[in-house]
Amino acid sequence: MDLQAHSAELSQVLQLIQHLFGIESAIFDNSATLVVSSSKYLEKKGTMVHKPSILEVIEQDEVTVFTPGNMPSCIGCRFNGNCPATLEILKRIMLADYPVGVLSFSAFSKSDHDRLTRDIEFFKQIIYDFVELISNLLRGSGGDINSGNIDGYLSALTELMPDGLLVTDRQGNILSMNGAALGMLSGSCLKSVRDFLPEELVAMILEGSRVEDHSVTADKENSFSVSTVPIKTAEEVEGAAVRLVRKSGRILAKAKLPETDTMQGSGAHMSSIKRRMKKVVNSPSSVFISGETGTGKGLLAKSIHYESDRSDKPFVTISCANIPESLFESELFGYEAGAFTGALKSGKRGKLEMAEGGTLFLDEISEMPMNMQAKLLNVLQDYRFERVGGTNTVRVNARIISASNADMNQRIAENRFRADLFYRLNVINIEMLPLRERMEDMPQLLTAFLAKFNQRLNSHVVSFSQEVLDLFYRYSWPGNIRQLENIVEYCVNMAEGSTVKVEDLPAYFLREVSNQPAPTLKGMESATIREMLDHYGWDMKGKARTAEALGISLRTLYRKMDQAHFSDK
């Protein structure tokens, strides 16, 4: 594979390394030609590469150079005896068992050298993870890397950091933060860095200045060291990555999701979901969440975690559909040094170990390979496992939450999923209904999404025209809440005034609304029952009055409510 053809995309990976960990890095192809590098690397070492050094890495897989310029492989290099780098970690990039290049981390200052030396095993783990990220992206996309694929790996990478990490937009609004940051910031539902950083520091961050180890006192009992790097596109500052290191004070156990990411809806179904969630948040029992794509299964899993006593521990996600079968075991259980060709010499922790004390979320569990299902079942029975290639038993204390949009009973009938494993995963079952079956949540969802995107896009859209609302209520929403959120974001971008009008809606949405069939009699019946229960009440007296008004027996009403998946408020 010609990495040079993907230099623009690969530079995004190096930006992630810089933003997340503040490391100078470079990527070389398998002929030892520099493909992309960070700005400081280019400034210090230029584009000329000492070929024997890179070929040594391609041959040996991983090389750590503690004294650059004074190693045997440095003979013949123009920097021999006087290398600007003080430490380098280099790792081979593989694709289909074939080496395609090398990723390097370099230190050019005493502070960076001391940081890498102090946590050398940690940074070896990081370079391995980024090499694996590059390989997976190339493998999964036929050679085309895109930012959407990169985003899928970010949450796991940020959870590797013991420090707090958050990312902002150009206005200082918080776009994302890892679990450590949520715990450090006292569990507050923060929206902006202005909520906890002094204004003069915020101004420096948003103008693109790089901040290193700036002390901030949050309150009488908590102080932090703050470091930031700007996020730039074509030299335009798009935001910042902020790292927080606790200097003193207590770490509060209760962390929460940001307000914009909490579950929205106060109708019968969501009220039932929230009530059941509160009952089980601190239970160690496994939870299985079912529902169509886009109904909010992942958000419910996060909500359970962050409302529980485990909220100060990691929330780790595995998307079972996106991991090649050959890599699944090492991804879940980790591996020991030398377990297989290309393995990191220090070994690697798996997702189960990373989730210790917290929650492991197995998304799209229906796609887990059959050979892995038996091994996961053993973990759920014994709460222990062994790394790939290892003999030492690792005990695990992670709550398992799984989710799927597939019919699990059908999967079991087709011998694609083990019934005994599903019984262990499905101890507590929560079903997320599609949006078309809980349209009573539409007003609250629209209000929440408007607030979210007004803040993110610095807009001032406050409402939707009645004609737009009528279309929303007519539409069947095959993509559910995720689709609604995307459409609201589109509308906030398109709206010229404070009200979203029909012309601000996506063209595909208008086509699908006009082409979809009229509402079914059953759907209209369910909507009528819901409206009357909302009017008369969901208690026994209200149900009796609803049945009387509809001219049916109370028993028939309960049967129809059950068929429509209604739950008591």
UniProtKB/TrEMBL annotation:
Tagged with keyword DNA-binding = yes
Which Pfam families does the protein's record reference? AAA_lid_14, HTH_8, Sigma54_activat
Sigma-54 factor interaction domain location is 263-493
Q: Which SMART domains match?
A: AAA
Keywords attached to this Swiss-Prot or TrEMBL record, sorted alphabetically, are: ATP-binding, DNA-binding, Nucleotide-binding, Transcription, Transcription regulation
Keyword Magnesium applies: no
Instruction: Quote the InterPro entries the UniProt record gives.
Output: AAA+_ATPase, AAA_lid_NorR, HTH_Fis, PAS, Sigma_54_int, Sigma_54_int_dom_ATP-bd_1, Sigma_54_int_dom_ATP-bd_2, Sigma_54_int_dom_CS
What the entry lists under PANTHER family is as follows: TRANSCRIPTIONAL REGULATORY PROTEIN (PTHR32071)
Protein name (record):
Sigma 54-interacting transcriptional regulator
